[in-house]
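Quick one:
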Amino acid sequence: MKDEKISVGGQAVIEGVMMRSPKVVATVVRRADGTLENKVQDFIPLSKRKKYLNIPVLRGALSLFEMMKLGIGTLNWSADKAIEDEKKAKGEKVEKSKNSFFQNLLEGLGTSAVLIIALGIFMYIPYKITDIFEEKFNSNQFIFNLLAGMIRTIFIILYMYAISFMKDVKRLFEYHGAEHKAIAAFEKGLEMNVENVKAQTRFHPRCGTSFILIAAIITIIIFSIFDSLYYLYYVYPNIISRIGVHLLFMPVAVGVSFELLKMSEKYSGIKPVALLIQPGLWLQHITTNEPDDSQLEVAIESILLSTQYLNTGTGVEK
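Output:
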């Protein structure tokens, strides 16, 4: 389909799919009346625009931050469209207005509360549980972080499994499967139609699910080495201080994980790399579902729009 290989990534959103090519981001959602609505915008990563930032590890940390910001923005856009459809179905008036200062403040407080809860569940509780057994392994920091990391990973998997039974999340995971299938067909250079896309696997090695597991492993290794050196001179007075220090070094773990994920795609044919990828593919049995034809159509439209403007770089938001 393309003479030069184009790297495309994506994300499922509410009743739709966001696709990102090297220059353009396209989000397509299916409205309640069956029509498709899209939002297309130019997007070039900071590490591509600023060459001095395009260095290993640093570009990974920056990329994650940009992807989180972009992902939340597109998810909110799709949520707004879903709310509009819900109001129309109820016969309520749909008004397009900007949030007030207090609405933005409340949203910010809500996001902060979610982050605090997430830190509590995925960092504080695993450390607290591990702390109970610390004396048994003589404060060995490698074992401490290994056990805490294993507990954290189990919590993440259980969380994904639990929410997968929710109706809206099931729907989201179907669009996630559609996203993967569309990318697989595009990467093989196939004609982008429902028949070709439907035949593809819904499991993709470059998925964010795989990134989470790789990041979990890298985090264990980095924090184990760091804490072992740290304990030669200092001791954490409590769990909160440990979490604070670890959060400061989290961008390093994220950056290294990003580089490994990129390498895993390039060297996926090598057995050790294939073994590293496999757990992420297994986890996608939870985070993706088989999509229907209408969802595949959304993913196809999204990937076509994201690659349509590559030669000109003039994605237009609409």
